[in-house]
Protein backbone atom coordinates (compact mmCIF):
# COMPACT_ATOMS: atom_id res chain seq x y z
CA UNK A 1 0.00 0.00 0.00
CA UNK A 2 1.50 3.31 -1.04
CA UNK A 3 0.13 6.61 0.14
CA UNK A 4 1.18 10.11 -0.72
CA UNK A 5 -0.02 12.60 1.85
CA UNK A 6 -0.36 16.26 1.03
CA UNK A 7 -0.51 19.01 3.66
CA UNK A 8 -3.80 19.42 5.48
CA UNK A 9 -5.21 16.20 4.08
CA UNK A 10 -6.77 13.45 6.14
CA UNK A 11 -5.96 9.92 5.22
CA UNK A 12 -7.52 7.08 7.26
CA UNK A 13 -4.94 4.56 6.00
CA UNK A 14 -2.32 6.36 8.11
CA UNK A 15 -3.60 4.30 11.03
CA UNK A 16 -2.72 1.07 9.27
CA UNK A 17 0.06 -0.98 10.87
CA UNK A 18 0.41 -2.73 7.47
CA UNK A 19 1.64 0.45 5.76
CA UNK A 20 4.82 -0.23 3.76
CA UNK A 21 5.31 2.97 1.73
CA UNK A 22 4.88 6.53 2.97
CA UNK A 23 5.68 9.75 1.14
CA UNK A 24 5.20 13.16 2.76
CA UNK A 25 5.60 16.22 0.54
CA UNK A 26 5.67 19.81 1.81
CA UNK A 27 4.00 18.79 5.05
CA UNK A 28 5.02 21.93 6.89
CA UNK A 29 2.52 21.27 9.67
CA UNK A 30 4.07 17.89 10.49
CA UNK A 31 6.53 18.39 13.33
CA UNK A 32 9.52 16.19 14.07
CA UNK A 33 7.67 14.95 17.16
CA UNK A 34 4.52 14.23 15.14
CA UNK A 35 6.47 12.26 12.57
CA UNK A 36 8.23 10.30 15.33
CA UNK A 37 4.88 9.39 16.88
CA UNK A 38 3.44 8.38 13.51
CA UNK A 39 6.25 6.06 12.39
CA UNK A 40 5.97 4.11 15.63
CA UNK A 41 2.60 2.92 14.28
CA UNK A 42 4.14 1.57 11.06
CA UNK A 43 6.57 -1.21 12.03
CA UNK A 44 6.41 -2.76 8.53
CA UNK A 45 7.40 0.44 6.73
CA UNK A 46 9.90 -0.30 3.94
CA UNK A 47 10.00 3.06 2.14
CA UNK A 48 9.88 6.51 3.70
CA UNK A 49 10.27 9.53 1.45
CA UNK A 50 10.23 12.98 3.05
CA UNK A 51 10.33 16.09 0.90
CA UNK A 52 10.74 19.60 2.34
CA UNK A 53 10.23 18.51 5.93
CA UNK A 54 12.55 19.56 8.74
CA UNK A 55 13.44 16.64 10.98
CA UNK A 56 16.01 16.10 13.70
CA UNK A 57 18.59 13.39 14.25
CA UNK A 58 16.34 12.14 17.06
CA UNK A 59 13.54 11.70 14.53
CA UNK A 60 15.88 9.69 12.30
CA UNK A 61 16.82 7.54 15.31
CA UNK A 62 13.13 6.92 16.05
CA UNK A 63 12.42 6.05 12.41
CA UNK A 64 15.29 3.56 12.41
CA UNK A 65 14.35 1.91 15.70
CA UNK A 66 10.63 1.76 14.86
CA UNK A 67 10.95 0.59 11.24
CA UNK A 68 13.66 -2.05 11.39
CA UNK A 69 12.94 -3.26 7.84
CA UNK A 70 13.28 0.15 6.20
CA UNK A 71 14.89 -0.35 2.80
CA UNK A 72 14.49 3.07 1.17
CA UNK A 73 14.87 6.46 2.85
CA UNK A 74 14.73 9.75 0.98
CA UNK A 75 15.14 13.04 2.79
CA UNK A 76 15.00 16.33 0.94
CA UNK A 77 15.33 19.20 3.37
CA UNK A 78 17.08 21.65 1.05
CA UNK A 79 14.99 24.60 2.20
CA UNK A 80 15.32 23.68 5.87
CA UNK A 81 19.10 23.97 6.28
CA UNK A 82 21.75 26.64 6.03
CA UNK A 83 23.58 25.92 2.75
CA UNK A 84 27.12 26.56 4.05
CA UNK A 85 27.16 24.69 7.35
CA UNK A 86 28.57 21.17 7.27
CA UNK A 87 27.24 18.61 9.72
CA UNK A 88 27.13 14.86 10.07
CA UNK A 89 24.37 14.34 12.66
CA UNK A 90 21.80 13.03 10.19
CA UNK A 91 24.31 10.81 8.38
CA UNK A 92 25.56 9.28 11.63
CA UNK A 93 21.99 8.73 12.88
CA UNK A 94 21.16 6.94 9.61
CA UNK A 95 24.32 4.82 9.83
CA UNK A 96 23.60 3.80 13.42
CA UNK A 97 19.86 3.14 13.06
CA UNK A 98 19.09 2.03 9.48
CA UNK A 99 21.35 -0.95 8.74
CA UNK A 100 18.91 -2.57 6.26
CA UNK A 101 18.81 0.36 3.83
CA UNK A 102 19.23 -0.46 0.16
CA UNK A 103 18.50 3.02 -1.20
CA UNK A 104 19.35 6.35 0.41
CA UNK A 105 18.86 9.85 -0.96
CA UNK A 106 19.86 12.91 1.05
CA UNK A 107 19.23 16.26 -0.62
CA UNK A 108 20.12 19.45 1.19
CA UNK A 109 22.49 17.56 3.45
CA UNK A 110 26.00 18.96 3.88
CA UNK A 111 27.67 15.89 5.35
CA UNK A 112 31.43 15.59 5.39
CA UNK A 113 33.64 12.62 4.56
CA UNK A 114 33.08 11.41 8.14
CA UNK A 115 29.32 11.24 7.59
CA UNK A 116 29.73 9.47 4.26
CA UNK A 117 32.10 6.92 5.79
CA UNK A 118 29.65 6.30 8.64
CA UNK A 119 26.85 5.58 6.16
CA UNK A 120 28.97 3.28 4.02
CA UNK A 121 30.10 1.33 7.11
CA UNK A 122 26.73 1.32 8.88
CA UNK A 123 24.54 0.39 5.90
CA UNK A 124 26.17 -2.70 4.34
CA UNK A 125 23.12 -3.47 2.14
CA UNK A 126 23.27 -0.08 0.41
CA UNK A 127 22.85 -0.30 -3.38
CA UNK A 128 22.34 3.38 -4.18
CA UNK A 129 23.29 6.61 -2.47
CA UNK A 130 22.45 10.08 -3.76
CA UNK A 131 23.45 13.34 -2.14
UniProtKB/TrEMBL annotation:
- Per the record, the domain of life is Eukaryota
Q: Which SUPFAM superfamilies match?
A: RNI-like
Q: Mind telling me which InterPro entries this protein's record contains? A: Leu-rich_rpt_Cys-con_subtyp, LRR_dom_sf
From the Swiss-Prot or TrEMBL record, give the protein name: Uncharacterized protein
Q: Which organism is it from?
A: Solanum verrucosum
Amino acid sequence: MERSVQPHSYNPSLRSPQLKHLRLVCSYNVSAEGLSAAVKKFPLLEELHLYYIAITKETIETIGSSCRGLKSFKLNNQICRHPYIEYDEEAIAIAQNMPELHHLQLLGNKMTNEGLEAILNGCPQLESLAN
